Amino acid sequence: MLKILDRYILRKFLSTFFFSITLILLIFIVFDIKEKIQTYTTKDIPLKEIIFDYYCMFIPYYGNLFSPLFTFIAVIFFTSKMAHQTEFVAILSSGTSFKRIMRPYIIGASILASCSLILNHFILPKAVEIKIGFEDKWINNSYNNDEHNIHKKIGPNRLLYMESYDNHLRSAFKVSIEDIVNNKQTYFLSADNMTWDSLGSEWNLVNVYERKIIAQDRLDTLKTGKPIFKQINTFYPTKKLKLAFTPIDMNRYESKIETMPYFEFREYIIREKLKGSNKIEFFEVEQYRRTSFPFATFILTIIGVCVSSRKVRGGVGLQIALGLLLSCIYIMFMYIFTTIATTGFAPPLLAVWTPNIIFSFVALYFYRTAQK
Predict the structure, then answer these.
(1) How far is the C-alpha of 149 from the C-alpha of 165, rounded, in Å?
(2) If DSSP codes are grouped into helix, strand and coil, which group holds residue 50?
(3) What is the edge-to-edge ordering of all strands in the sheet holding 227-241?
(4) Using an 8 Å Cβ cutoff, are 295 and 316 in contact?
(5) Closest C-alpha to 16, from 301, 328, 330, 367
(6) Which residues contact 279 (CB under 8 A, 6 or more apart)?
(7) How far is CA 305 from CA 10, 98, 323, in A?
(8) Residue in 270, 274, 207, 261 with CA at minimum distance from that of residue 234
């Protein structure tokens, strides 16, 4: 049951957080409108789409992205103000322990972290999908893949090559597929182009040349003593083919992974592992980041309380400056270790959680040295 002190601190915590995050989001929206106003007017984009498909998705996306930082700033701002007005001294003098004072802060951090966790795994992916759809339709000139000589591993032993791919037509040009088993080619297919059939969830290939290499039951006893292989060559004007490859695999990486809710994303990673994809680290970093990032709310809240609960000569400004410095260091660590994980130099799980582990010790140090 929340007591008067808990309600007082929790109310200040949440109100300061939502006020500060709302203020910064409004500033972001103003600058974003200023940057895109010419696009909005020249392309006659419907106002309904701008509001509901872009900015209503923009707000939760960036609000969640900056939530740990503004949790930290909110805690420092109102706690340092309480300390400056000697409220903390009065609370501690009444016999209330510092550990007890931390209770409403942890409750507030739990509320914000839980919301962020649910947003990251279940709600934001759909919001991002709508936002990216709006950007691709009106701002990015309908995104199209501009890669050439594209190589994809679409199975444990299967390789796909495309000279080029068109996202609009969902078609690939100058296509070849080959199966490699024990460093030997067992199947080869080439086609002038292939187009996605959304009704049958398959590819329609044109001018198809297919070669199957089959090992015979007998050995070449006169020469090598190894199995004799037989080639079967076939030509098809058209051919339908199901592959472990769909048009979504040619979307932008952020379009693929940021728009997948938790369970869909987990199944996608399993499929990519079966294919032998070389982007597994990239996907796993995103999966673990969705959980580790909300957890930072607890760490930054504890640091914020410990840093700002003591009345200092520099006042609120000095404590906010220290808080911002620590936040910048945390964000820098997060990006450094994320890069390390995506390049394969460290396991994604360890790399993503390393900034939280490091700052947990920082939080422990500040907690032990805080004013008791």
Answers:
(1) 9
(2) helix
(3) 148-153, 158-166, 171-181, 184-197, 202-219, 227-241
(4) no
(5) 301
(6) 253, 272
(7) 13, 10, 10
(8) 207
Instruction: Please name every residue paired with 187 in a beta bridge, in sequence order, or none if there are none.
Output: 179, 212
CB 174 within 8 A of CB 163: yes
The structure tokens 């390390």 sit at 340
Residue type, 182: N
Listed range (54-63, 140-149, 196-205, 331-340) with the worst mean pLDDT: 140-149
Do the beta carbons of residue 324 and residue 76 sit within 8 Å?
A: no
Q: pLDDT for 120-172, tens place per residue?
A: 999 999 999 899 889 888 887 666 677 888 988 888 889 999 999 988 889 99
d(CA 251, CA 258): 11
Other Cβ atoms less than 10 A from the Cβ of 263: the count is 10
236-256 CB burial, b ≥16 within 10 A, e <16:
eeebebeebbbbebbbeeebb
Establish how many alpha carbons lie within 13 A of residue 208's alpha carbon, considering only the half-sphere containing its beta carbon. 18
What's the CA gap between 161 and 150, in Å, rounded?
6
Closest CA to 303 of 48, 31, 74, 1: 74
Q: Mean pLDDT for the chain? A: 87
Tokens 């700033």 belong to 73
159: left (phi over 0), alpha (psi -120 to 50) or beta: beta
Over residues 309-347, the pLDDT tens digits come to 877 666 667 777 777 788 788 888 888 888 888 877 889
End-to-end CA distance of the chain: 24
- Give the residues across from 232 on adjacent strands: 212
Q: Is 2 helix (H, G, I), strand (E, B) or coil?
A: coil
Asked if 311 and 79 touch (Cβ cutoff 8 Å), the reply is: no
The tally of CA atoms less than 13 A away on the side-chain side of residue 226 is 4
Side chain identity, residue 247: P
CB 206 within 8 A of CB 213: no
Task: Tell me the HSE value of 85 on the side-chain side, using a 13 A CA sphere.
Answer: 7
Q: Say what angle helices 67-84 and 280-308 make with each other, to 10 degrees.
A: 10
Give the number of residues written for the chain.
372
Per the structure block, which two tokens stand in for 211? 């070669």
CA 67 to the chain's CA centroid: 15
